[in-house]
């Protein structure tokens, strides 16, 4: 049986002054090894696409994390300048998200992708969580190897009876890594909180009216996903949804 195709929208990056469309290896590895699907990296060509044509090509969409931030103009931000930005990715993902949800296509959104999901559905972002009184510093450590950068940083409280609690085997909390400095400010009306950090930051959501799999996480479950029980459950459920798409 052939593996279902999952689209992975790319970042547009400058490398030695030349533009490249790129997606992180750890996301693609989690899709191949854990979700058991076939990733297809989608260049960030924005409105040169027709979203319905892209949806017809695939059985799911994974929105990755990135160094770049969603442009504040997309959600009426506070005016803080928080580069780097990637307008080509914004132009690609924001209309694709709404089209995918309207079609009932399985969708998993991670980090920047999680923030894109909130913005696409009418929510807003906090540009600098660490500058707000009483909030944790959710940014990655300034020093250390990859295991330190992506190591557990804090716990999140899972919503009782929610999808994430079920994926976590009934656990009420989950230790997660934390490498972001932006996050949900006003949650989009269609989103339901599934996990909350100790400082009140919403760290996971589901799309309330989605007919199938439509989840987002602020942390990075893709990092060494095959070694983490929750990541195995999350990517496994996403893969199952992609395999069932169209049945």
Topology summary:
Layout lengths: L4 E5 L1 E5 L2 E5 L2 H11 L2 E5 L8 H5 L4 E4 L23 H17 L3 E4 L1 H9 L4 E2 L19 H4 L4 E5 L4 H5 L5 E4 L6 E2 L6 E6 L5 E6 L6 E4 L11 H16 L3
Parallel strand pairs: 1-4, 1-5, 5-6, 6-13
Antiparallel strand pairs: 2-3, 7-10, 8-9, 8-11, 11-12, 12-13
Helix pairs in contact: 1-7, 3-4
Describe this structure in words.
Helix 1 packs across helix 7 and helix 3 crosses helix 4. The chain is built from seven helices and 13 strands. By secondary structure, it is of the alpha/beta class. Strand 5, helix 3 and strand 6 form a beta-alpha-beta unit. The chain has one domain: Rossmann fold, CATH 3.40.50.880. The chain has a nine-stranded mixed sheet with strand order 4-1-5-6-13-12-11-8-9, with helices on both faces. Strands 2-3 form a two-stranded antiparallel ribbon.
Entry summary:
The protein has seven helices and 13 strands. It has helices spanning 25-35, 51-55, 87-103, 112-120, 146-149, 163-167, 229-244, and strands at residues 5-9, 11-15, 18-22, 38-42, 60-63, 107-110, 125-126, 154-158, 173-176, 183-184, 191-196, 202-207, 214-217.
What keywords describe this structure?
single chain; 247 residues; alpha/beta; Rossmann fold; 9-stranded mixed sheet; two-stranded antiparallel ribbon; 7 helices; 13 strands
């Amino acid at each position: 049986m052939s593996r279902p195709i999952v689209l992975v929208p790319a970042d547009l990056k400058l490398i030695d002054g030349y533009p490249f469309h790129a997606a992180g290896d750890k996301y693609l590895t989690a899709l191949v090894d854990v979700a058991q699907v076939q990733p297809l990296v989608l260049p960030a060509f924005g409105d040169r696409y027709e979203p319905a044509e892209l949806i017809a090509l695939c059985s799911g969409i994974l929105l990755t994390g990135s160094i770049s931030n969603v442009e504040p103009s997309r959600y009426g931000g506070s005016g803080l300048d928080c580069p780097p930005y990637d307008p080509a990715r914004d132009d690609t993902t924001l209309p694709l998200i709404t089209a995918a949800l309207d079609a009932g296509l399985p969708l998993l959104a991670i980090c920047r992708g999680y923030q894109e999901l909130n913005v696409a559905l009418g929510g807003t972002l906090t540009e600098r969580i660490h500058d707000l009184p009483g909030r944790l510093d959710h940014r990655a450590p300034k020093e250390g190897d990859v295991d330190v950068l992506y190591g557990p940083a804090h716990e999140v409280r899972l919503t009782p009876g929610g999808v994430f609690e079920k994926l976590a085997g009934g656990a009420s909390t989950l230790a997660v890594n934390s490498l972001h400095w932006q996050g949900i400010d006003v949650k989009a009306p269609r989103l339901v909180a599934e996990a909350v950090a100790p400082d009140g930051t919403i760290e996971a959501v589901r799309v309330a009216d989605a007919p199938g799999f439509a989840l987002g996480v602020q942390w990075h479950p893709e990092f060494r996903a095959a070694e983490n029980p929750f990541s195995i459950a999350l990517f496994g459920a996403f893969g199952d949804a992609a395999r069932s798409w169209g049945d």
